[in-house]
Amino acid sequence: MSISIKSAREIELMRISNHMLCDMHRELEKLICPGLPTIELDKAAADFIKKHGVESNFLNYDGFPASICVSVNEEVVHGIPSKEKVLKEGDIVSIDAGLIYKGYHSDAARTYGVGKISPEKQKLIDETRNSFFEGIKYARAGNHVSDISNAIDAYISQFGYGIVRELVGHGVGTALHEDPQIPNFRQKRRGAKLQPGMTLAVEPMINLGRGDVVWEEDEWTVVTDDCSPSAHYENTILITEGDPEILSLYEP
User: What's the whole-number mean pLDDT along residues 114-129?
Assistant: First the structure.
């Protein structure tokens, strides 16, 4: 395992990349409504990326055909935007996106309701987000990756939700996926020791039903095996000497 410790200059470049990504998520959120084809979210993201002179780190990644991932209802992650896939009242939609700024990656995901959604779906979205914040309470120098994983698992398990095990968080920097891996479920091993300068993408993926998932025929879209709704919440964080800094959340 080779874990990258970022310099002050690298951290600043990642901060800029992630702040732009936060702005893009805010713009995309405003577009979400019943009747919107998901391809329109991808077009808006592509326009934002071009306007700001950055790159999508998802487009053409191992052949992925879009600038962002848009996953609806039972789609967990890596949904491909399409003009045929149209958002409906009561859906939930996850947007996973990342940018490259001067060689440095950002990565963040959000799940939104489309129009009025059921209390059950809203609670899933809220608790998935809350589990991220429970996990990063332990994202402190001297702790271990397992401390984050165990905290997410402990929080989510009280609701009876399924935790996706096939997909995990990861380090991020000059590559989209770096060491270490960051599972969202309880670990027996302690994992890597957290050090100042580490940049990590922590991303709980939580299902209303079981945690089992399958890949669709497009070999990208991951869906829940029992067709239950799924929520996704992710931020890029920086390990510091104190509390972690959430790079992909900021107030402009």
Answer: 98
136: domain CATH number is 3.90.230.10
How far is residue 170 from each of residues 15, 65, 126, 192, measured CA to CA in Å? Answer: 17, 22, 22, 12
Instruction: Establish if 232 belongs to a structural domain.
Output: yes
Point out which residues pair with 213 in neighbouring strands: 224
**Confidence at residue 3, expressed as pLDDT on a 0 to 100 scale:** 95
The pTM of the full predicted model, rounded to 2 decimals, is 0.97
Give residue-wise pLDDT tens across range 20-79: 999 999 999 999 999 999 999 999 999 999 999 999 999 999 999 999 999 999 999 999
Residue 31 lies in a domain: yes
User: Does residue 251 lie within any of the structural domains?
Assistant: no
Is pLDDT at 1 greater than 80 in this prediction? no
pLDDT at 252: 81
Amino acid making up residue 142 = G
Domain residues for 49?
A: 8-246
Residue 104: which of 204, 250, 247, 243 has the closest Cα?
247
Other Cβ atoms less than 10 A from the Cβ of 234: the count is: 25
- What is the domain count for the chain? 1
